[in-house]
Amino acid sequence: MTRQQSTQFRRWRVGALGAPAAALRLETAPVRPPGPGEVVVRVTAAGLNFPDLLLCAGRYQERPALPFSPGFEAAGTIEAVGPEAGFAVGDTVLAVPELPDGALQECLTLPGTQVYPVPRSMPAVHAAVLHIAYQTAHVALRHRAGLRPGETVLVTGAAGGVGSAAVQLALAAGATVIGVVTGPAKATACRHLGAHEVVDLAAEPDPAGRVRAATGGRGADVAVDVVGGDAFTWVRRCVAFEGRVVVTGFTSGAFGAIPANHVLLRNYAVLGLHLATYRRANPGLLRDVHDALLTAYAAGAVRPLIHRELPFDQAADGLEMLASREVIGRVVLRC
After folding, report:
1. Is the domain of 170 the same as that of 76?
2. Stretch (H or E) spanning 310
3. Please, how many CA atoms are within 13 Å of residue 226, restricted to the half-sphere of its CB?
4. CATH of the domain at 90
5. Which of 38, 63, 100, 297 has the most crowded Cβ, counting Cβ within 10 A?
6. Full domain range(s) for residue 14
7. Which of 144, 152, 141, 169 is nearest to 269 (CA)?
């Protein structure tokens, strides 16, 4: 029986909350035929994201009932379609399934509304990580912050998934980019991405002062904060007049505090961004952003930074890499 004809597939399930090695279990399940408006996607690659770690530990904003499959994005090929699905067998796609049936599965049966087309020429490992990080960065910069050419963009966690995407997209938008990282390897990666200025927190005792100096005392017009915690505290101290800080995550493990008096006196805005909310509140925006990302990819303006490719059965190892904070770019599972 060929893989395309298989009626069984493997999937990762969280059976108990905890560290990935303890929380995840690999099991076999039958393929569910597609209903009206649904497709079956045979997954070839799946991207791992920091929220997967939080899901395993029960610390994510969404807390699906046990057991569930984590994972937010995967690439693959459609092998079956239901009536009015809007796709054809053989289409190459990016799938963004909803919890509790997340992307860490070798086969996904899901609504066509949770599937985005990608060109056959795009490698699966790139397609598998084109949604969460790049959509977050694009919506943060363009839709939330209203980035204009010539402005200065400050990006924390600039060698990570969302951070590296934000650096590339800000450069493509004609911005001056200041990337913030920790450690020389990440600093080198950030420079290779094209950041005009790189702040290494491991060697810089006053990052806010460094940013102000690099901007002639003005500060950053837009800040994309992936890290939260203490990083948010110093980031808001070096935002320009009428600047915008977009909070996209808290990889530090803590949210930053927002003192209203400081926001008032310094005349800046703090904007939140939870990408999943747009799927329900403004799905059309995500479709438009996807098209814009495909155009940017075709032009060579964006290229996902891949740290490691791992076999599907090493999902726990991949998530432990993310937990180590040593990952530069993305970790992808190959099926």
Report:
1. no
2. strand 306-311
3. 27
4. 3.90.180.10
5. 38
6. 3-130+304-334
7. 144
